[in-house]
Structure formats: structure tokens, C-alpha cells
UniProtKB/TrEMBL annotation:
This is Pirin family protein. InterPro entries: Pirin (IPR012093), Pirin_N_dom (IPR003829), RmlC-like_jellyroll (IPR014710), RmlC_Cupin_sf (IPR011051). Residues 17-117 form the Pirin N-terminal domain. Gene3D superfamilies: Jelly Rolls. It comes from the Bacteria. Belongs to the pirin family. It comes from Nocardioides marinquilinus.
Amino acid sequence: MTVEIRRGTSAFVEREPGRLSRHGFSFGPHYDPENLRLGPLVCHDDHLLARGRGFETHRHSGLVIVTYVVSGALDHDGPTGRVTVPAGSLAVLRTGPGVEHAEVAAVAQTRFVQAWLTDDDADDVTPSYEVLDPGTVSVEPLTGMRLEVRRLGDHETTTLPAAPRVHGYVARGALLRFSLAEPLAEGDAFRFVDEPAHEVTAAVPSTLLLWSFA
């Protein structure tokens, strides 16, 4: 059993005009051989964009990319044309063997958290992009992989998933001290391997993004 706490202050930071990105895992020039992945999760980023800024057309292959829009709205151009993803929504891009797409902020102060998952069957997948209803609180983009969006009220308690591997991220708010960590703030993450279920309590209204992997 292992527990790793990753503070937001330790994220790899990338700044460009109109964009601030924080990378939770090794990414591009930010290389850390001890922070490459957690099972199929190879990228976990938090992006803040000015209106009209973001990522122009680029290519991906062999991945499933899951996006949660924290605030603002994100314009996505890809295999289904242009789609606007509003705050509170989940979106799933299946790249298959290869697809081009673009992600640009539709309004100012657009913030989204994005995870990349390796897909061993990508060569047999037709590229697609799906935006789920804003009220959707979970998605299973691949067999044995699940993302839950937990929205907690002030001092509300929730039980974390019990799974072989768990990745948790405080997208908004903060958690009180619990059995495995000091208080966690917005942007902090935790990674569990073979841990039992644990309870956490929100210090203020909070949003948690919880990945579990079989």
C-alpha cells in the first residue's frame, strides 16, 4: 500500500500569453523519471485560459482524453466539428489511431482539468468526441477506468473509492486534515495504490475529481 501527496506548488508550470498550465506528471521538457504515470494515466493538467487562447490544431493518437471544465466555456474543434463545452461538463475524446483537434477558450477565465489515458485498442477505435450533460457526475471512458466528480458542501464528508489505483484532485475548495494527509488545497492531488477506502471532509464547498483504476 502506498500513498503519495502531490501539492499544487510542485506541479510543472508552463506560461504563455493568455495561458497558464500546471502539469501533474512529467510533460514535454519537464521530465521527472519518478513521476511519469499512474497506471494508464499519463497526463493530468490544469489549464487557465484567456478568451481566444488555448491549443490550436494539433494531433493525438492512442489516447482517450477526458476534460472537465471548471469555469468558463471551452470551444473544441475535432471529429464532430465545433462543440462548446460549458462549465461543470465532462467531455471525452477518443483519438483512435490518430485525430486532429483544437481547444480554445470561448470566454475569459476558462479553466479546465484534463487527463490522458493510454488506449491499447486505439487502432480499432473510430475517433469521436462526446460532451456529457453538465449534471453528469461520472464516466467510464475505458473498461476498468472511472472518473467521478464529487461536489461537496461545507464540511461535507465523502468516502474515496477503494480500488487498486486511485488519483484524486482538488479542483476547487479544500479538504480538512484526514488520516493520510495534512489539509489539501485547490490544485493538490493524491495517489493511492492498494489502499482501502478513506473518508475526506471538505473545509469549504469543494469539487474533487477522482480517478479509479481496476
